[in-house]
Amino acid sequence: MFMIIGQMTMAKEAMGSYAEDVQSLINDVVKEDGCEYYSLTVQDEEAGLISVTEIWSDEDALNVHLKQPWVQAFNEKYMSHLKSHSLKIYDGDYVRDF
After folding, report:
1. DSSP element (H, E) containing 83
2. How far is CA 57 from CA 16, 50, 67, 83, 95, in A?
3. Within 10 A of 84 (CB to CB), how many other CB atoms are there?
4. Which domain holds residue 16?
5. Residue 85, pLDDT above cutoff 90
6. pLDDT score of 44 more than 90
7. How confident is the model over 53-64, as pLDDT tens digits?
8. What is the CATH number of the domain that holds 63?
């Protein structure tokens, strides 16, 4: 299991089209092999605060994901607006139900 969890802050001017574009991205990502969970949730649109939660079956699945054309197009549009992030990678196989 391979997880990316944290927050990103985007420039305010990028937030206008973000919600629609991220929903389109998610529709493609959740169909990818190895995607267990994927969420880029706007926590505060005015501040550009986005919570990130991704769970992948393994690092290989994540690497394939990052090369997908829909991911690259999304990143090309939004990464220049990224102001900061606190994303962390968690690698572990011990998972249990809550």
Report:
1. strand 82-85
2. 32, 23, 16, 29, 12
3. 10
4. 2-91
5. yes
6. yes
7. 999 999 999 999
8. 3.30.70.100
